[in-house]
Amino acid sequence: MLTPSAALLESRVTQRLMGFTAFLRANGFTVGGGDAVEVLHTAERVGVLESQVLRWSLKALLCGRSDEWRRFDELFDAWFLPPNRWQSPVRRAAPDSGPGVRPAVADSRAPRGADSDALCARDVAASREVRSSADFRTLMQREHLLEIEALMRRFARRLRHIRLRRAERARKGRRLDLPATIRRSVTTGGTPLNLAWRNPRRVRPRLVLLVDVSRSMAPYSFFYLRLARALSAELTDLRSFIFHTHLTPVSEALREADPWRAQERLQVLAQGWAGGTRIGESLEQFNREHAARCVHSRTAVIIMSDGYDTGEPQRLSQALAVLRRRVRRLVWINPLCKRADYTPSPAGMQAALPHLDLLAPGADLASLEAVLPKLIESLR
Amino acid sequence: MSEAARAHELAALQEDLARAGYIAEAPLAAALLLMQDLGRPLLLEGDAGVGKTEVAKVLATIRGTRLIRLQCYEGLDAHAAMYEWNYQRQLLAIKLLEHDERGIAQKEQDIFSERYLLRRPLLEAISADTALVLLIDEIDRADEAFEAFLLELLSDFQLSIPELGTVHARSRPLVVITSNGTRELSDALRRRCLYQYIDYPDYEKEFAIVRRKAPEVASALARQIVAFVQAVRRMDLQKKPGIAETLDWTAALLRLGISTLEAGGAERIMETLSALIKTRDDRAAFPREVVARLAAAC
């Protein structure tokens, strides 16, 4: 039925459509190989000439979360609309798939941003990048890194163990589980010998980590991010954020299975860190944008910061007061606190103190080990 | 495949939706069409109060079918969602059958027959003769185990009941899943579904909604109301007002006989704000001066 040229055209269109999923994957979308087929099905139904209809349909098909939803249109344009450029598979396979970053759209655009240097040339160590990406370069020492990782993971397992034990189904309860009892009684001819009990379920506790990564925290933020990473591997609903002058969610990046990839993604997120710390504003941002999503009645928020704040203490105090009303426990872990002569001298710390449930030292693993179980206990 | 036909279909669907009282943007309508083409569930995300649940309701209306709603909650298990045996009646039956002459196997068959089966939403949805709309509301409140179970159902459209055998779907329901994003959903579920993020409506859309839902409001007042609400949404609030709040507030204004929003009437507007602002902290952000300023800007 098709003329040869039409067949050729069709095969071109097919190729282009199928390439789109790979392009999205290179940009950090979670799409699988099977989706390429779905794209063709959709195009067959919807037609390809009406570009808006195709856009909306593919958007519904291929997006899976709200950040993908927001980035889709730009990527769609880059791939389908002229002037577009084919990226060779080699280039696309380059490790530039950090989500939430500038899309790896066309070659000409990427070098402008700093991310591609930082990513592709991890050995080159462009001096400017390293300086502005704070402390993450210490992650380069691989053995050291693995050691801490293992230690943290053991620690996180212990934490989870605490949680599991509390969630264990009790043999005895307050309410009889009638359906299950009768189901069991089938084996004993209808006489309920083995009773089943039901206990009220409780909301699982959740941890939210806010890690200060400003210049003054440089020696510690590395350590805290490793902690966050190890914890997030074990506790599925841990939420982590980093802040300096503003707040960035990093849960996704930390969950990256490969430590090198995680490091790369964090490096991208860390771009352009300046010296200042505005804890108050960062917390306000947390309250405004994230608190509704990740704070529930059994949430503990842990702030890891030295309290050196260049913003107004008043703002910090207010933001903490708002946060305190929402969460179950508000804990501040301060690495400087360990020193014997420590008094909360920074203005920021003093403003914060009245709103905290706990101000704890956290310069090393031992002091953290002392704090966190106490915290879990309070969440029961 | 004719291209124009699709665009027509899209416009027709939007019109149908509008007639049923729902103003849908083209992308949402495109997703609804695609959902029927591919037979996939539609996952709707967005803040509370942007009209996610309404999509399912209106879809049922324009298809002329029934809507079955499964409200998820913490601790929802497969039994509560799928089926349950009517244990009390079974127990009674066992007692009654005690002196029956029939064999054990037969008695058992009797006790585990459809008569004693309580159909919960999921079983009901797939055993209906005609395709209906299944709304799985706030999936993020249920736990991961339930999500995995749901995934299995949504891929095969069959349920197995050990005592009865497998129930195959007689018709494929249109499945709409909503989530408020309080918990991260699994990638598997996301990939199985079509996705749509619903944002707060823009000025024009909200105006159209107010006009449609509250036709007794004068056009000028409706414009003011929408401008006011949009300004409120731009403020830094814990709980931003959704569309339902806008409509409530409109009703409240009408009730008090307020026909125009102006700075001078700030006191009376404040009396109605409880319909719009739902937390104490947010209420504190609306002293008289702020309300007057907002009203004056409308």
Summarize the structure.
The complex is a heterodimer of chains A (380) and B (298). Chain A is α/β, with parallel strands linked by helices and 380 residues long.
Description:
- The complex is a heterodimer of chains A (380) and B (298).
- Chain A is α/β, with parallel strands linked by helices.
- Chain A folds into three domains: 4-106, no CATH class; 169-201, no CATH class; 206-379, Rossmann fold (3-Layer(aba) Sandwich).
- Helix content of chain A is 52%, strand content 9%.
- Chain A has helices spanning 4-26, 34-46, 51-62, 66-80, 89-93, 115-120, 127-132, 142-167, 178-185, 218-234, 251-255, 259-269, 279-294, 313-326, 347-352, 365-379, and strands at residues 175-176, 197-198, 206-212, 239-243, 247-249, 299-304, 329-334, 358-361.
- Chain A has a six-stranded mixed β-sheet, with helices on both faces. Chain A has a two-stranded antiparallel sheet with strand order 1-2.
- The termini of chain A are far apart.
- By secondary structure, chain B is of the alpha/beta class.
- Chain B has two domains: 3-82 and 120-197, P-loop containing nucleotide triphosphate hydrolases (Rossmann fold); 203-297.
- Chain B has a five-stranded parallel β-sheet with strand order 2-5-8-1-9. A two-stranded antiparallel sheet of chain B has the order 3-4. A two-stranded antiparallel ribbon of chain B has the order 6-7.
- Chain B starts with a helix and ends with a helix.
- The mean pLDDT of chain B is 87.
- The chains are: A alpha/beta (380), B alpha/beta (298).
- The interface between A and B is large, with 45 and 46 residues.
